[in-house]
Design a protein that fits this description.
Elements (H helix, E strand, L loop, with lengths): L2 H29 L6 H30 L14 H34 L16 H29 L7 E8 L2 E10 L5 E5 L1 E5 L4 E7 L4 E4 L7 E3 L5 E5 L5 E7 L11 E7 L1 H13 L10 H11 L43 E2 L4 E2 H13 L1 H4 L13 E4 L2 E4 L5 H12 L26
Parallel strand pairs: 1-5, 4-10
Antiparallel strand pairs: 1-2, 2-3, 5-8, 6-7, 6-9, 9-10, 11-12, 13-14
Length: 442
């Protein structure tokens, strides 16, 4: 039994020591003017260090932005679009009501706290059932606000969702990891519908009816400068309208996580004045891929594109090359594949890899892309054409094909020859909207 009092005594001694130490710390802090306890002092230093790191954070953000291939910003507040203007009008009411509610609730809170402070009221508070009138107001006001916002939302949906008959129609197919844009109202003279991969043309100053679907997983079509986004879902067609009053090149991205190269699934929207848009579509309608000159690299590239290359070893298909025409369409040629994006106007396009590279970088990356696209774009399903390199298909390693450097260069030369007439170059003298470092026109 003697052990228990001894233990209690030791505990009391330790408690007394702790109290004495706390008192010394407190009085020392009181005597030092302008200096608080150590714990607060450390927090102050942390705040200063955070402010000191702020310029580094800004610099890091700038450097990361500079590392991106697409030097073009997105804006949901682009008032050149009637879609965005309508959303903005609705948002003004929602923002205004939110501000009123915030200040109203804050005033009521601080007024109540100040009026009924304990030091001003010594008597116990009166007990009562409640305030029926106040409770009615607290229920009625939110209901009225919600109904008002609902009416505004339904009004905006009624304006934006229907697509007028005179709207320009564009069908969009999304697949891992690229886009294809077809113009169902424009039939090509060479057969089929006019289409373009990864670059969408649209007219200004009139509604454009977009119909989007997916060929594999769920994607998201998002070009906020021209309007709202929609999910691209397999076996589902979604139609809505977008528009812009300003000619220019706009950035578009996939907004749904869809695989390894989701961030590399981009596209461009090129909005042209109505007269130039009509002239460009007319040139696309009449377009036929040019005939390569005999003995030229383009002729060799054409043959490889259409027919592929027989395997030197029948037991090893990777020693040959499959034709590109099995997956891609080129207007005015036997190539009618639908597995990959349309390449009819490849030489006019200024992006590569679904917007992964732009301008001169796209030109520089064409050979590496043809040699081994999965190596430069994760998840790409286009097979490599370099020494039978392996790539992944549905999670399984698969052998690619083999072309020599001369043959790769010949295919690249043929692709570059697939150009619209100079007067139909839809990139010429069109301003890039939201360009950061590049600026200017394309």
């Amino acid at each position: 039994m003697s052990a228990r009092p001894a233990a209690r005594g030791r505990a009391l001694v330790w408690t007394a020591r702790l109290h004495a130490r706390a008192r010394r710390t407190f009085y020392t802090a009181r005597k030092r003017k302008g200096v608080t306890l150590n714990t607060t002092h450390r927090h102050s230093g942390t705040r200063r260090s955070r402010w000191a790191l702020a310029p580094l954070a800004v610099l890091g953000s700038a450097l990361l932005t500079g590392c991106q291939q697409a030097q073009q910003s997105l804006s949901i507040g682009d008032m050149a679009s009637a879609f965005n203007r309508e959303i903005w009008v609705m948002s003004i009411w929602a923002i205004a009501l939110s501000i009123i509610i915030f200040f109203g609730v804050s005033f009521a809170l601080f007024y109540t706290v100040q009026k009924f402070r304990e030091d001003k009221h010594d008597a116990p508070p009166a007990q009562f059932h409640g305030n029926n009138k106040l409770e009615v107001w607290l229920v009625a006001v939110p209901v009225v606000i919600v109904i008002f916002l609902s009416v505004l939302t339904v009004r905006s949906m009624a304006i934006l969702n229907p697509t007028p008959d005179q709207a320009t129609k564009i069908d969009i197919l999304a697949k891992q990891f690229w886009w294809n844009f077809e113009y169902p109202e424009v039939k090509a003279d060479a057969g089929g519908e006019v289409a373009n991969g990864n670059e969408m043309l649209m007219p200004t100053r009139q509604p454009v009816a977009l119909t989007v679907t997916s060929g594999d997983v769920i994607h998201g079509f998002w070009a906020p400068n021209i309007g709202g986004q929609r999910a691209a879902m397999p076996a589902v067609n979604k139609t809505w309208q977008v528009d812009t009053d300003r000619a220019g090149v706009y950035q578009g991205n996939c907004s749904q996580l869809c695989g390894a190269s989701h961030a590399n699934m981009r596209y461009k929207v090129i909005a042209l004045d109505q007269a130039r848009y009509d002239a460009t579509l007319a040139a696309m309608k009449a377009y036929r891929a040019p005939e390569p000159a005999p003995g030229s690299p383009e002729e060799l590239g054409y043959k490889l594109f259409m027919q592929g290359k027989p395997a030197t070893d029948p037991k090893r298909p990777e020693t040959g090359a499959a034709s590109c025409a099995g997956c891609h369409r080129v207007q005015g040629t036997p190539a009618g594949g639908q597995v990959g994006p349309d390449l009819s106007f490849f030489g006019t396009r200024r992006t590569l890899g679904a917007g992964m590279w732009e301008g001169q970088k796209a030109e520089d990356m064409l050979i590496p892309w043809l040699k081994n696209s999965p190596a430069v774009k994760p998840g790409a399903l286009m097979p490599p054409y370099e020494n039978g390199a392996e790539y992944m298909v549905n999670g399984k390693p698969t052998k690619g094909y083999s072309l020599t450097d001369e043959e790769i260069n010949a295919v690249a030369a043929y692709l570059r020859s697939l150009k619209l007439p100079e007067e139909a170059d839809y990139w010429r003298d069109v301003p890039v909207i939201g360009a950061s470092s590049n600026g200017g026109t394309q």
